């Protein structure tokens, strides 16, 4: 990134808080018969689950993205994982929530990958992936959620009123829509949900980007791990409040302008920050 975004607090972010409560205080403590009373510690989530409960009847057509999946996943936590596994998963989930420290691979903080859950239970991993994917793709669009927390467009309009550069921070080339324009830019999952599903609704992992960066260049690439060579990468936190101490050096070596190509350009970087010690850094 060329510059960080400023994070904004917005009602829409509450959904992630509700789901974190669900994971930590309900699913990872699954040891009794499931009931909606287990959600008493998060009244807002319980109310949403109650209002959506009628969709559990598949004959009524609308898709059930909340109430049924919550109970199904609860039962899988209880039957697929033993007490120690649930405890360890709860601990790992907690350690994964500070995204800034996760991106820099700080000690005591670790990313929660889909493959880790898969190693415990493939069926649980599958159901969790479906649930978290639907949170962003479908649950945010439900009337009950929009009434309580607002819409992505509401969030985007508030976001670009604070982040006023008007330029995509990933490429520094393309503009992004202002709040006065119809629609909004795509929200890139900085940690892609295909590999890290539990971050799918975390707005500290959701960053508006231009079409080219989101749909052509980054795609499902992980900013913290190079899967081809099996090497960790450190990534810049999109909402960092710390200035980036990085110098980007571009060298152009052209003897014949008619024979110009990418091979004639080299880009390197250096800096005094902790990133200088790393062999590889993700610059997306």
How is this structure best described in words?
With 284 residues, this protein is of the alpha+beta class. The chain has one domain. 37% of the residues lie in helices and 10% in strands. The protein contains ten helices and eight strands. The protein has a two-stranded antiparallel ribbon. A hairpin with a 4-residue loop joins strand 3 and strand 4 (231-232). The chain starts with 13 loop residues before the first helix and ends with a strand.
Summarize the SSE layout with pairings.
Layout (H helix, E strand, L loop, with lengths): L13 H13 L16 H10 L14 H14 L2 H13 L3 H5 L10 H7 L1 H16 L5 H7 L2 H11 L23 E4 L16 E4 L1 H8 L6 E2 L4 E2 L1 E2 L11 E6 L12 E6 L10 E2 L2
Parallel strand pairs: 5-8
Antiparallel strand pairs: 1-2, 3-4, 6-7
Helix pairs in contact: 3-7, 6-7
